[in-house]
């Protein structure tokens, strides 16, 4: 065999051997367990996170609805308190040395020394009951601390007894009601609301 052919054949064998080794190494690399192992799935907890967020949002929305309902109820109660007392409805108070307690109408029920919102020019009856057997009376006062138009009842000290003060016409002079014996404890505000003229209402 000529020397040139021997050199060529040797070169081919060397190249083939190198290619075989390279292929073998590549095959081993492909069989590496670390590379073949598929990535593990993310924990299931991550998938539940959106649901937890939705639950939080629903709870917040429900809380907001509850707050709005509470505010609406408070607004309704405040609206009732801002309404003048109906002249046809008797005002009933209980008097003790601790103060006056509203009994009727419902807008002043259970309130201590409630504000009496009255309509100017209307007539009212205020009945009070002696709640403790101490001496009490009821007077309507103006801003100079004087009794308005003799609107006052006699002193009474019999527990359970009642007296009624009849107001013929409410005027803006009336600013408070009180017991002359316990002026600092048994005192409440009289608020007078003016009525609109019929002409203004027609306009």
Automatic annotation (TrEMBL):
The keyword Metal-binding applies. Residues 29-91 have a biased composition (Acidic residues). Pfam families: Copper-bind. One of its GO terms (molecular function) is electron transfer activity. Keywords: Copper, Metal-binding. Residues 23-116 are annotated as: Disordered. Coiled coil: none annotated. InterPro entries: BlueCu_1 (IPR000923), Cupredoxin (IPR008972). Residues 123-193 form the Blue (type 1) copper domain. This is Copper binding protein, plastocyanin/azurin family. It comes from Natronobacterium texcoconense.
């Amino acid at each position: 065999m000529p020397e040139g052919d021997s050199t060529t054949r040797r070169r081919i064998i060397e190249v083939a051997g190198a290619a075989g080794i390279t292929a073998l190494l590549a095959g081993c690399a492909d069989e590496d367990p670390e590379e073949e192992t598929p990535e593990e799935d993310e924990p299931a907890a991550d998938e539940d996170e959106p649901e937890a967020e939705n639950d939080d949002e629903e709870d917040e929305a429900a809380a907001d609805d509850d707050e709005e309902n509470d505010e609406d109820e408070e607004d309704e109660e405040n609206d009732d308190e801002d309404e003048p007392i109906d002249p046809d409805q008797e005002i009933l108070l209980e008097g003790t040395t601790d103060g006056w307690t509203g009994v009727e109408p419902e807008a002043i029920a259970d309130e201590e020394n409630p504000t009496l919102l009255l309509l100017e020019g209307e007539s009212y009856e205020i009945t009070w009951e002696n709640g403790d057997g101490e001496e009490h009376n009821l007077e309507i006062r103006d801003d100079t601390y004087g009794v308005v138009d003799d609107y006052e009842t006699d002193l009474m000290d019999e527990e359970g007894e009642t007296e009624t003060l009849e107001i013929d016409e409410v005027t803006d002079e009336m600013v408070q009601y009180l017991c002359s014996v316990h002026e600092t404890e048994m005192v409440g505000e009289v608020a007078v609301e003016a009525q609109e003229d019929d002409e203004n209402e027609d306009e």
